[in-house]
Amino acid sequence: MLNKLGFRFSVDHVLAGEVIGLCTMPSHKTFIIKKKLAKKQRQNRPIPHWIRMRTDNTIRYNAKRRHWRRTKLGL
Predict the structure, then answer these.
(1) Among candidates 26, 13, 25, which has minimal Cα distance to 73?
(2) Can you give 26-75 as a three-state secondary structure string?
Protein backbone atom coordinates (compact mmCIF):
# COMPACT_ATOMS: atom_id res chain seq x y z
CA MET A 1 0.00 0.00 0.00
CA LEU A 2 1.10 3.60 -0.55
CA ASN A 3 0.42 6.58 1.67
CA LYS A 4 -0.32 10.15 0.53
CA LEU A 5 3.35 10.92 -0.24
CA GLY A 6 3.88 7.74 -2.21
CA PHE A 7 5.90 5.92 0.46
CA ARG A 8 5.45 2.19 0.88
CA PHE A 9 3.09 1.51 3.77
CA SER A 10 2.88 -1.88 5.44
CA VAL A 11 0.19 -2.92 7.89
CA ASP A 12 1.85 -4.15 11.07
CA HIS A 13 -0.75 -4.53 13.78
CA VAL A 14 -4.49 -4.47 14.18
CA LEU A 15 -5.38 -3.09 17.61
CA ALA A 16 -9.03 -2.66 18.66
CA GLY A 17 -10.14 -2.24 15.05
CA GLU A 18 -7.49 0.36 14.23
CA VAL A 19 -4.76 -0.32 11.73
CA ILE A 20 -1.31 0.71 12.92
CA GLY A 21 1.12 0.93 10.03
CA LEU A 22 4.81 1.46 9.53
CA CYS A 23 5.92 3.96 6.92
CA THR A 24 9.36 3.23 5.51
CA MET A 25 11.49 5.99 4.04
CA PRO A 26 12.76 5.31 0.53
CA SER A 27 16.44 5.67 -0.24
CA HIS A 28 15.65 7.88 -3.26
CA LYS A 29 13.94 10.93 -1.80
CA THR A 30 12.42 13.86 -3.64
CA PHE A 31 14.16 17.20 -3.21
CA ILE A 32 11.18 18.69 -1.35
CA ILE A 33 11.20 15.87 1.22
CA LYS A 34 14.97 16.16 1.55
CA LYS A 35 14.70 19.91 2.25
CA LYS A 36 12.02 19.33 4.89
CA LEU A 37 14.12 16.64 6.57
CA ALA A 38 17.17 18.92 6.55
CA LYS A 39 15.20 21.76 8.16
CA LYS A 40 13.84 19.48 10.87
CA GLN A 41 17.36 18.20 11.51
CA ARG A 42 18.64 21.77 11.96
CA GLN A 43 15.76 22.63 14.33
CA ASN A 44 16.37 19.56 16.48
CA ARG A 45 19.23 20.83 18.62
CA PRO A 46 19.66 22.26 22.12
CA ILE A 47 19.55 26.01 22.61
CA PRO A 48 22.92 27.78 22.66
CA HIS A 49 24.43 28.48 26.05
CA TRP A 50 24.64 32.23 25.41
CA ILE A 51 20.84 32.38 25.09
CA ARG A 52 20.54 30.83 28.55
CA MET A 53 22.84 33.53 29.88
CA ARG A 54 21.08 36.33 27.98
CA THR A 55 17.64 35.36 29.33
CA ASP A 56 18.94 34.77 32.88
CA ASN A 57 18.22 31.06 32.54
CA THR A 58 14.47 31.53 32.00
CA ILE A 59 14.76 29.54 28.76
CA ARG A 60 16.51 26.38 29.91
CA TYR A 61 15.92 23.87 27.14
CA ASN A 62 14.42 23.47 23.69
CA ALA A 63 10.77 22.54 24.29
CA LYS A 64 10.36 21.38 20.68
CA ARG A 65 13.21 18.87 20.83
CA ARG A 66 12.29 15.63 19.04
CA HIS A 67 13.59 12.10 19.45
CA TRP A 68 13.87 10.15 16.20
CA ARG A 69 12.16 7.06 17.55
CA ARG A 70 9.53 8.48 19.92
CA THR A 71 8.11 11.34 17.84
CA LYS A 72 7.69 11.03 14.10
CA LEU A 73 7.51 13.95 11.69
CA GLY A 74 4.46 12.83 9.74
CA LEU A 75 5.85 13.90 6.38
Answers:
(1) 25
(2) CCCCCHHHHHHHHHHHHHCCCCCHHHHHHCCCCCCCCCCCCCCCCCCCCC
38-52 pLDDT, tens digit per residue, is: 999 999 999 999 999
pTM strictly above 0.70: no
Q: How far does Cα 40 stand from its chain's mean position?
A: 7
Chain-wide mean pLDDT for the chain?
Answer: 83
**Distance separating alpha carbons of residues 61 and 46, to the nearest angstrom:** 6
Cβ pair 59, 51 in contact under 8 A: yes
Run of H or E including 10: strand 9-15
